[in-house]
Amino acid sequence: MPSSKQNKVKTKTEFRNLSTLFDLNQKNVLMGQGMSNGSENVVNLDESNQGSEDRDNVRSDSSSDNSSDDETTVMETSLRSLIRAITSGSHSISFRSGQSTVVADDTESDSDDISSGEFPKFYRAPPIMKTHVPDTSKIKTNEISSLISRDAEFSSERSLLQALRIRHLGGLKRKPIKEICSHLVPDSAKELAGFRNKLFCGVYGRGGDIFLSACQDRFLRIYDTRGGNFDLLQSIKARDVGWSVLDVALSPDGTHLVYSSWNDYLYQVHILGDNYDDDAYSVHQVPLCLEPPGYIQFCIFSVKFSQDSSEVMGGANDGCIYLYNREANTQSLRIQAHDNDVNAVCFVDETTHIVASGGDDGLCKVWDRRALRESNPKPVGVLAGHRDGIGYLDPKGDGRFLISNSKDQSIKLWDIRRFSQDSEIEQGKIAVRKNNTWDYRWERVPKKVTKQPQLSGDSSVMTYCGHRVLQTLIRCHFSPHFTTGQRYIYTGCATGAIVIYDILTGEIVKVLSGHRACVRDVSWHPYVPEIISSSWDMTVKRWSPRGQDKEEFEERRDKISSKRKKREASGALKL
Q1: Which of 416, 347, 349, 348 is nearest to 381 (CA)?
Q2: The predicted structure's pLDDT at residue 79
Q3: In terms of C-beta density within 10 A (0-12 exposed, 13-18 middle, 19 or more buried), how is residue 96 classed?
């Protein structure tokens, strides 16, 4: 029988190893949407409340030294508490300074206190992946190359000052604003709000006049962003939340929002109007009942409005796509789309006839609703090329192109007119099965994942690598058409950064560093060169190009002044 001293050494080693594991995984263990139970149980770490079984397990041999027994008991209890926290789905786990006990934080709060969102000193962000050499052979011959080049004809090497001067001289007459401002990439951050829980979603609405934020404290908050402001207009307490609000969608007409969590319902909320009155307005939440057949733990991971706001589409953990008719107030369609979780859905075009879905099987499927039968659903095509599950989809809006963010640490650009062959689809499925040896929610990215070559049957137009998709399903988007001509792809990152890619070259244009934890969602203002990021460091930040423009303007001004003085000195300048 092992001695008390041996038990103590073994317990210390186990405790140290597990503590290191939590340190490496940035304080929170169960952060992903794919929780097996979706619960938010509070972990009680008071030894007196652990039950007789735990008390019996931590008793030491009566002949051992009392102080050694006490220390071993405390460490064993803390070790069990960590394990219990993993299995119960606690919000966060932290170590008390100077003690061997562990504290699980499951408090529910609506506080907006910025100082309460600080991470512990042991936090270490994972490094940005080394960028690969982009393969541009496909995109150079694809139609999107000419489309982007036409919409963003203005050279990225030309400054705003030069562009305005050339336009003044007639060189850029009748050119839209995107050809002048497409190179304005935000780079300067300002913290707008801080909370006591992680931010999961953040999106602009009503043409950039409002911003919707969803936090793990179960509150949806709507802010007035007109004129550069960020003023809280409305707070909505979400109902029946099982872990967090996982996704939100704003209707294109700007009147309603829909949110999802771990339950059988989507909830629809009529948001404030122009005649909003604090005293007279009351929040009315309408449950949109879905009908998952016999699924105990059900969750909608992704929710989207149709362009005319009449329908809501969701992708669920039962592998199905759900369509809900808001006018008829009933579920209109349910199709078995994927073999695993459906993490992402989107309407590909404004007509809402073409929809796309992405799942943990690594496939992006395109569906035509006009030919879709619930009894025998068949996609019009499948896009294969990812080596792991797809976490997010974003359409370009022209009915032809979309991008996908994947757990294989890449974003891919797809042309839905070029589908994968059966052999290529099977090759993608095999690659996904081989990558099922690690879990993106709490493990580091294996080296083999970052070194894997592109699949020979990859039907994507372009692949973008450099960001990390860990801990949660991180979102990516096309940059706005009005100000950038959609020449960029931008994404959140598990390193706490925002990564911006050039869509044609695949190169990283800018890495915006400023958050201390995973950036799950990012939203670029449709008409102003500003990005708002929502992070798990419990803060919301606005990024603007003011700092870059100031330095660029001063540099250009000094160069022009110096050249002018030289020309005046040589007599070459005539007034």
Answers
A1: 416
A2: 53
A3: exposed
